[in-house]
Write a structure and sequence with these properties.
This protein is an alpha/beta fold. The protein has one domain: 3-Layer(aba) Sandwich (Rossmann fold). It is built from eight helices and five strands, in the order H-E-H-E-H-H-E-H-E-H-H-E-H. It has helices at about 15-20, 35-50, 60-65, 75-95, 110-120, 140-150, 155-160, 190-200; strands at about 25-30, 55-60, 100, 135-140, 180-185. A five-stranded parallel β-sheet has the order 2-3-1-4-5, sandwiched between helices. Helix 2 packs across helix 8 and helix 4 (about 75-95) runs parallel beside helix 5. It is globular, with a radius of gyration of 18 Å. InterPro entries: APS, APS_kinase_dom, P-loop_NTPase. Belongs to the APS kinase family. This is Adenylyl-sulfate kinase.
Length: about 210
């Protein structure tokens, strides 16, 4: 752990929310590869931007081109991948931006760590309210995900060309208490976006102009 560092005080979370006229939060999409996480997250980002909200999507593949290009797919590297993403998402959310993360994030413990991180206030503002963390389980049977397989990853995993592939040779631990569950074999992308926006609006996390 780094030493000789000091947390610099800045605006409070409430002040930033007031100036930016929106509340920051993280919407955490989790699910198998080819479940539809990125597709829904992209559509939601576009919808929120059209409504005038600041939103930004962090995608699993995209992040591995830069921030996490040093990580592989072992359990330890997956843990670190999600830890880093959780920290980045919290920074976005703390800036009063709606952070959308679309990662398989297969382990419950890692997702719980991300949730707890968002509930932890900064040292400079211990009275800040927790940052909202909304877990969205994009649910799909592995058989259906294999049928989609746009990148051909399941086929390669079945052939033994991709070790530790989630759902085939590595586990996926389904959320037990996700705020939102979307079954993509039954739900269109448009309806999924509507489901999420309705959830946020009903809980006062998103204020839509009438």
């Amino acid at each position: 752990m780094a030493t000789n560092i000091t947390w610099h005080e800045g605006l409070s979370r409430a002040e930033r929310n007031t100036y930016r006229k929106q509340r920051g939060m993280t919407i955490w999409f989790t699910g198998l590869s080819a479940s539809g996480k990125s597709t829904i997250a992209t559509a939601l980002e576009q919808h929120l931007l059209h409504l005038g909200f600041a939103a930004y999507r962090l995608d699993g593949d995209n992040v591995r081109f830069g921030l996490n290009k040093d990580l592989g797919f072992s359990e330890r590297d997956r843990n670190e991948n999600i830890r880093r993403i959780a920290e980045v998402a919290k920074l976005f959310a703390d800036s009063s931006t709606i952070a959308l993360t679309s990662f398989i994030s297969p382990y419950r413990k890692d997702r719980q760590t991300a949730r707890e991180l968002h509930a932890t206030p900064s040292p400079a503002h211990p009275d800040d309210e927790p940052l909202p963390f909304i877990e969205v389980f994009v649910d799909i049977p592995v058989e259906e995900a294999e049928k989609r397989d746009p990148k051909g990853l399941y086929k390669k995993a079945r052939e033994g060309k991709i070790p530790e592939f989630t759902g085939i040779s590595a586990p996926y631990e389904e959320p037990e208490n996700a705020e939102i569950r979307i079954e993509t074999v039954k739900t269109s992308v448009e309806d999924a976006v509507k489901q999420i926006v309705t959830y946020l609006e009903e809980r006062g996390l998103l204020k839509l102009e009438s």
